Amino acid sequence: MKRSKHPAPRDAVSGFTLIEVMIAIVIMAVLSLIAWRGLDSMSRANVQLQERSEDTAQLMRTLQQLQRDLAWRTTIELPASGMEAQAQDGAPSTGGGRQQAAVRLLPPGMEARRPDPGSLLIEFVRAAPAAPGRWQRVQWWLQAGTLYRAVGAAVAAYPLPVPEAADRVAVLQGLVSFELRAWEPEQGWRALPAAVQARSPASGLEIVLGARRNGGPVLHYRQVVAFD
User: Fold this and answer.
1) pTM above 0.90, yes or no
2) Before 107, cis peptide (omega within 30)?
3) How many whole angstroms separate alpha carbon 107 and alpha carbon 79?
């Protein structure tokens, strides 16, 4: 028998060249980089959103706490400050040499003053929620970008003790401003402390907190409390 001179056919062998493999690796690397940047951007945006939400929630809780303190406000008189005493002594006189009675803009038991040129303090008397029949002084003020709150001891006799240094609590940090205005009927909003004599008692109080986050613009948060 004669052997065939033609060799048996071999199966065809297919595959990728080195260049094709390198191109595929580069494409996958570019896609991975794009996906990573997208995920990183979404993660950063989520973190910033959470921080802003927490800051806003903290500001709202602060305003609510101040509103609750004012809701327990009483009308017990506070000792007149030097400014109020001077305003009463220098009140304008009417015809016949009679002195016109001074009208307090803020209700009894409430006072706003500036201990320092760049600070503002509001002080008022409230009923002690945990001690019926007793009263206490409450102070709110801004100092070096931090809003503080201090509540004095609850007592049943007058005069009421002034809050001590140990009673001070830092409520909110990172504030730019803490401003108060009182609504005088037929006159409009008046900044506190009032520089001129009022014609009628105020019927409401406006609280404005100014905050700046991460070097952005100042955002103002406003709360209005009506006086009963």
Assistant:
1) no
2) no
3) 13
CB-based contacts of 184: which residues, under 8 Å, 6+ apart?
105, 190, 198, 199, 200, 201, 202, 203
Where do we find the tokens 């201090």?
150
Cα separation, 113 vs 140, whole angstroms: 11
- Write the CA distances from 5 to 2, 8, integer angstroms: 9, 9
Query: Could you state, in order of their start, the residue ranges of all structural domains in the chain?
Result: 55-85+102-226
Q: Are 81 and 113 in contact (CB under 8 A)?
A: yes
pLDDT at 81: 44
**Do the beta carbons of residue 210 and residue 59 sit within 8 Å?**
no
SS3 call for 212:
coil
Residue closest to 106 by CA, chosen among 147, 138, 75, 66? 75
